[in-house]
Every structure is written in structure tokens, then in C-alpha cells.
């Protein structure tokens, strides 16, 4: 029995691999949200849209969407954006619509930041993410929607974020910068085949959403652009992200759920988040959970991830006062190259929205499996720092090989207040994870 099992799994693995190659079969997000065909189509030019890069198209977008919302054609309506550069202020989407960007279509955010509308802070944050009070509405916004698609032939949504980044750098931002695309309280969202460029802040932010698919997207922002996270599923469930390239100034994908007393009170977790076949580079983390995790984060599954020229490969981060939980996180099949730290799990990063947090609200971290991770030019293998009064448990490292900058080995792991197991990990992991009787911690994850 004990001999046959590995053989079976090897055969199964080879078979699956062969099957992928021969039939082009891949596990995908399909099925989470059905793709919609829209019979009814309108073009932004029907509403006076001009793609000359100078004309302000705010009225055209708002009128087109108003028409889609109120005519309510059976099966929804597709709004076509032909090739050209369409400058506009922010606008709201509506349910049962597809925003379709043709090849060469660019929807470009105005640089007149003083015209930008404000919206209320998110209840799970209690204030703007970077400034107290309200926050600027996302460039493309959806609240309380269902059945919305943003797609096309790889047209571009350009946030022209430079002006916002400079306001942040100069410290004269009045409110929290706008996200590029945000959906709130929505379900049945597909974002595919679009390029996102130069977001003022986070790029794609589904918050209080369910059933969201993001695939075949390219997200670009300069390495030094502040807080330009790629995709941040936040207090959302059934989110599937795949086949995308992301290179920005902050985390590529960061799963969140509000912070401190606000997130704890709101209590909405992020769960069932799938991330696969994502490649990219970030001065911070490739795949991140946190640090805002007060509503809890569970059932995150990331695989086939390539991270290069980055700060951290996989980063799980929370805080004293944050409460919530992080559990059942699996990250596997990761390749990293030229990364400062391979894996970092931190119990107290130390940032808070205000001083009202409860220092006894400790996060609960249990069941993190990291397996089949290969790295070259990794300066530091990793660190896992749990909390003294809330140690991290069931942390499983399996088949991890992180090569250093010069020799075959990077400096050793650093751990505290953590228990779990490590199997075939090089450089050899910290003592807390390496005792053989602990290897049971890995068992329930295979
Ligand atoms: C867009 O949505 C926001 C938030 O739901 C709302 O405050 C705002 O009035 C809407 N703007 C327009 C032009 O409909
Ligand atoms: C758009 O980009 C995606 C992802 O890079 C690519 O797979 C797809 O073939 C492109 N589609 C078109 C129509 O060019």
C-alpha cells in the first residue's frame, strides 16, 4: 500500500500533464459566472462620444449607461467603445451590461482631480484607506449591480495616475485616492481581455462582492507608483483570477477583509478566492493576504504563479488589534526569480487606522500550506513570525527550494511563535517546523 500510493500519484500527475498538453484542457474560472451574449448593442458614438483624446466624454458615458439602465433590454446591453482615446470623468456602470473596448480603444481618466466625486468610506474600513473621511469614487464604479462584463479586444482603461501619485508624494491629498475599477455589493462580474494602466490607487477592487471572474487582463503601473495594487478581493467570495500579467508599484494580488474595529464589526470575510497562472513583478508582494484581514480570510487557493524582480514572493500579514482569521490558505507551483524574501508571514506589521483598536483582538492564523515552490536569486528564504499570545498553527511547508544570490543556498529561515511541519525544504527551515513528529500538520492538506 505505502509503496503503491506515490506511484499512483506520479502516474496521475503525468497523466494530467499529458492530458493538458494533448487536449488543451486547463482548469479555468469558467462556470463561476456565465458569459453573456448581448443582443442589444449601442456605441458610445451614438451618445456623442468623441475619441480624440481631448473631448470630455463624461456626458456620453453617463447618458449611454442611463439608457441601458432604464430601457432594460432583454438580455442586457453591450456598450461598444470603438478605437480612439475617450477622455472622461468617472462614471457608474449598471446591471446587465457589457462595457466592450475595441482593439485600440482607450478610456482615459481626466486629470482634473478637483472635479472628482467623493463617496462614503467603506464600513469595514471606517474611513478612507489613506486619509480620514470619504474617498474619491473609483474611475469606473459599480454599486449593487449584477451581471456586468468589462471586456473587448484588449483595449485600455488608463487612470493617468501620475497626478495622484504626486499629490500623495507631496502630502497634499485631501481624501483617499480613487481605485481604477471598483465593484461594491455586486455579483456576477466578469473582467477579461482589458489592459489596466496607471491606476491612481488600487487597480481592481471587488468589495462585498460574490462571483467575480478576472481573466486575461494586463495590469501595468511603474514600480515606484505608490499603492497601485493589481487586484484586491476584499470581503468578497467566489473570486477567480487567472491567466493575467500584473506589474505594478505594490502587491500584485492582495486578499483583504477590512481593518481593526471597523472590519471586526462589519465581519464579512473573503473566502473561496482562486488565483492561477498569474505572472508579474512587484516591489512588494506577488501573492499577499492582508494586512487588512479583520473580517477573516479563508479558502484561498493560488497555483502556477511566476514572480520575478520583486520584494516578496508570498506574503501573509496581519496585526495585533486586527482580530479576524486567516485559515486554509494554499499556495503551490510557484516559481520566483530575483526576489528579496521568498516567503514572509507576519503577525504584527504595526499599522492601524486610528488608536481605537482593541489590543486584545488578536488574529487567528491556522492552516497555511505552501508547496512546490522553486526560487532562484532569492536573498532571504523566509520568515514566519506568529504572535506570542496567538501562535500560528498548522503551517506546512513542503517541497520548497529557494536558491540564494551567489551560492546554492540563501540564509536560513527565521521563525517565532509558529508550529507546523516542513518536508523537503531547502535551505532547512527553522527548528519550530522541522521536528519530525510535527509532520502530521502537513497531512490534512494533501
Ligand atoms: C455613482 O455611484 C455613487 C455611489 O453609489 C453615487 O454616490 C453617485 O451619485 C453616482 N453617480 C452618478 C452620476 O450616478
Ligand atoms: C488579449 O490579451 C490576452 C492576455 O494577454 C490574450 O490571451 C488574448 O489573446 C488577447 N486577445 C486579443 C483579441 O488580442
UniProtKB/TrEMBL annotation:
<keyword id="KW-0326">Glycosidase</keyword>
<dbReference type="GO" id="GO:0004650">
    <property type="term" value="F:polygalacturonase activity"/>
</dbReference>
<dbReference type="InterPro" id="IPR006626">
    <property type="entry name" value="PbH1"/>
</dbReference>
<dbReference type="Pfam" id="PF00295">
    <property type="entry name" value="Glyco_hydro_28"/>
</dbReference>
<dbReference type="GO" id="GO:0005975">
    <property type="term" value="P:carbohydrate metabolic process"/>
</dbReference>
<keyword id="KW-0378">Hydrolase</keyword>
<dbReference type="InterPro" id="IPR011050">
    <property type="entry name" value="Pectin_lyase_fold/virulence"/>
</dbReference>
<comment type="similarity">
    <text>Belongs to the glycosyl hydrolase 28 family.</text>
</comment>
<dbReference type="InterPro" id="IPR000743">
    <property type="entry name" value="Glyco_hydro_28"/>
</dbReference>
<protein>
    <recommendedName>
        <fullName>Pectin lyase-like superfamily protein</fullName>
    </recommendedName>
</protein>
<dbReference type="InterPro" id="IPR012334">
    <property type="entry name" value="Pectin_lyas_fold"/>
</dbReference>
<dbReference type="InterPro" id="IPR051801">
    <property type="entry name" value="GH28_Enzymes"/>
</dbReference>
Amino acid at each position: 500500500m505505502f509503496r503503491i500510493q506515490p506511484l499512483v500519484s506520479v502516474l496521475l500527475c503525468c497523466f494530467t500533464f499529458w492530458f493538458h498538453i494533448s487536449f488543451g484542457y486547463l482548469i479555468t474560472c469558467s462556470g463561476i459566472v456565465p458569459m453573456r451574449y448581448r443582443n442589444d448593442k449601442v456605441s458610445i458614438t451614438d451618445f456623442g462620444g468623441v475619441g480624440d483624446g481631448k473631448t470630455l466624454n463624461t456626458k456620453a458615458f453617463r447618458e449611454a449607461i442611463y439608457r441601458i439602465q432604464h430601457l432594460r433590454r432583454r438580455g442586457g446591453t453591450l456598450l461598444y467603445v470603438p478605437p480612439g482615446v475617450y477622455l472622461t470623468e468617472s462614471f457608474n456602470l449598471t446591471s446587465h451590461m457589457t462595457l466592450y473596448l475595441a482593439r485600440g480603444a482607450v478610456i482615459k481618466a481626466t486629470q482634473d482631480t478637483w472635479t472628482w466625486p467623493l463617496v462614503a468610506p467603506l464600513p469595514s474600513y471606517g474611513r478612507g484607506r489613506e486619509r480620514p473621511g470619504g474617498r474619491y469614487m473609483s474611475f469606473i464604479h459599480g454599486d449593487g449591480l449584477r451581471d456586468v462584463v468589462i471586456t473587448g479586444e484588449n483595449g485600455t482603461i488608463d487612470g493617468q495616475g501620475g497626478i495622484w501619485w504626486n499629490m500623495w508624494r507631496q502630502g497634499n491629498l485631501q481624501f483617499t485616492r480613487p481605485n481604477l475599477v471598483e465593484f461594491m455589493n455586486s455579483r456576477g462580474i466578469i473582467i477579461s481581455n482589458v489592459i489596466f494602466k496607471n491606476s491612481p490607487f488600487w487597480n481592481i477592487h471587488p468589495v462585498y462582492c460574490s462571483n467575480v471572474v478576472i481573466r486575461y487582463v494586463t495590469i501595468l503601473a511603474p514600480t515606484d507608483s505608490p499603492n497601485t495594487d493589481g487586484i484586491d478581493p476584499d470581503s468578497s467570495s467566489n473570486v477567480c483570477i487567472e491567466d493575467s500579467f500584473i506589474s505594478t508599484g505594490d502587491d500584485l494580488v492582495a486578499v483583504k477583509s477590512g481593518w481593526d474595529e471597523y472590519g471586526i464589526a462589519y465581519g464579512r470575510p473573503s473566502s473561496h478566492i482562486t488565483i492561477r497562472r498569474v505572472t508579474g513583478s512587484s516591489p512588494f508582494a506577488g501573492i499577499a493576504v492582508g494586512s487588512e484581514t479583520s473580517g477573516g480570510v479563508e479558502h484561498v487557493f493560488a497555483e502556477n504563479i511566476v514572480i520575478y524582480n520583486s520584494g516578496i514572493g508570498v506574503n501573509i500579514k496581519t496585526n495585533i488589534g486586527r482580530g479576524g482569521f486567516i485559515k486554509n490558505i494554499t499556495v503551490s507551483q510557484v516559481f520566483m526569480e530575483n526576489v528579496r524574501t521568498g516567503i514572509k508571514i507576519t503577525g504584527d506589521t504595526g499599522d492601524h487606522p486610528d488608536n481605537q483598536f482593541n489590543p486584545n483582538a488578536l488574529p487567528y492564523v491556522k492552516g497555511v500550506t505552501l508547496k512546490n515552490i522553486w526560487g532562484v536569486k532569492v536573498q532571504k528564504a523566509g520568515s514566519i513570525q506568529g504572535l506570542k499570545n496567538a501562535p500560528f498553527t498548522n503551517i506546512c511547508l513542503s517541497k520548497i527550494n529557494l536558491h540564494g544570490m551567489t551560492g546554492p543556498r540563501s540564509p536560513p529561515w527565521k521563525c517565532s511563535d509558529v508550529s507546523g511541519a516542513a518536508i523537503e525544504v531547502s535551505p532547512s527551515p527553522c527548528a519550530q517546523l522541522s521536528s519530525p513528529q510535527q509532520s502530521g500538520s502537513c497531512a490534512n492538506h494533501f
